[in-house]
Amino acid sequence: MRDVSLNPVRPFVTELTELTWLDDPVIAPTLVTLAAGALRVVIAPEVGGALAAYYESTPEGPLHWLRPATQAAFDERDPLRMASFPLFPYCNRIRDARFQFDGGTVDLSGNDLRFAHALHGNAWRHPWRVRARAESSVELHFEHEPDSQQPGDWPFRYRAQQRIELIGGALRITLSAQNLGDRPMPFGMGHHPYYPRTAQTRVYADVQAMWHADADVLPTHLGPHPAIEALRDGMSPDAFELDNNFANWSHEATIAWPDEHRQLTMTADAPFDHLVVFAPANDAQLCVEPVTNTTDCFNAVGMQEQVGGCVLLPGEEIAATLVWTPRRG
């Protein structure tokens, strides 16, 4: 874990001190809350298998480690306004919602008219089922059966799972998937966490190169950028206009709030070999996303280790773990 030399003072508590939707008679029954010591994680299986909050219970109120969901996120069943949500069976955009695979064209156009390019796969758009559940852990499952009558539907059959647990003073999520079809399937996965963003927030990550992008946030080439050195030293989200993939990272990133004397370290197993930093200018959003593939990986040209993603053979499974460890003082 990266040590950013925090000093022990009274912990900062975000302005949102009450998670009012936890007491909503309509919303509350659909949520799963895990607890271990003072740590809590709230999960909304029916809203794309998303996390609604990850926080520490303190006498002053909830201390949020991820940006908590808004009431509107529940009203509109919108994972994009949750704390984090799973990405299956690919991460980020696919140019023009099309790519070539196994001798044919996979056409994903028409599945969401809000976006010109296919975005984040399809698992986040559907409810997930709750399986094994305990006080500090739960398993969520999603199974996709292609629908030929649905425009732009993912044409491969697969199963995805999240095992979410609070253990060792941290949030651990193991993502896994299996190709349930009788033909190879292109594949990628990840998680899309949003973090509290303040003027003093800093992001630390050891990365080697950045995918530059065009106006549609689609990659053009891999190369140097001042953000690479800034991330190593502790980058302010306000330093650059970023929605970019970074290659060859150390599988560890830290989001620090030095004025609040706290930090959150994220570690990732291979093949989460790619890191997305979304830090738009003049915006409250901040994402530092562990993913297995670059944006538009199915169309990208480059070495496999630069592009990521994989092909799952019939029956083949893949699994890898992400951990978010908080530290105060």
Automatic annotation (TrEMBL):
<dbReference type="GO" id="GO:0030246">
    <property type="term" value="F:carbohydrate binding"/>
</dbReference>
<dbReference type="InterPro" id="IPR011013">
    <property type="entry name" value="Gal_mutarotase_sf_dom"/>
</dbReference>
<dbReference type="GO" id="GO:0005975">
    <property type="term" value="P:carbohydrate metabolic process"/>
</dbReference>
<dbReference type="GO" id="GO:0016853">
    <property type="term" value="F:isomerase activity"/>
</dbReference>
<protein>
    <recommendedName>
        <fullName>Aldose 1-epimerase</fullName>
    </recommendedName>
</protein>
<dbReference type="InterPro" id="IPR014718">
    <property type="entry name" value="GH-type_carb-bd"/>
</dbReference>
<dbReference type="InterPro" id="IPR008183">
    <property type="entry name" value="Aldose_1/G6P_1-epimerase"/>
</dbReference>
<dbReference type="Pfam" id="PF01263">
    <property type="entry name" value="Aldose_epim"/>
</dbReference>
